[in-house]
Amino acid sequence: MAMQEPTFFILTALAEQPLHGYGVIRAVADLSGGRVTLRAGTLYAALDRLTEEGLLVVDREEAVDGRLRRYYRLTDDGAGALSAEVDRLRANAAMAAARLRRTTRLAFGAGR
């Protein structure tokens, strides 16, 4: 099943290193070129779901200015799910590119 775009970017954001919630929000915005913007409530619901699914774990918690900051990390299952999604997206892009090349050849060939 296809991964939702916000999930894809959350997992991608966490692929290099553990991040806390606000760090994930910033990374997702950067990675998506600003197309995907996560609100805190949406993010934390997604983080809880992905943790329950075993794709993420809490790496550590630290107190900052009296507030608990929780860092999340990608699990091996999470890396596998992200890798499978990358493969799916690549295959879809390759198929679309091949069709476009055929269409372009047909269009230019028909005009001769």
From TrEMBL:
One Pfam family in the UniProt entry: PadR
Q: Which InterPro entries match?
A: Metal_resp_DNA-bind_regulator (IPR052509), Tscrpt_reg_PadR_N (IPR005149), WH-like_DNA-bd_sf (IPR036388), WH_DNA-bd_sf (IPR036390)
Q: Where is the Transcription regulator PadR N-terminal domain?
A: 10-82
What's the name of the protein?
A: Transcription regulator PadR N-terminal domain-containing protein
Native organism taxonomy: Bacteria, Bacillati, Actinomycetota, Actinomycetes, Micromonosporales
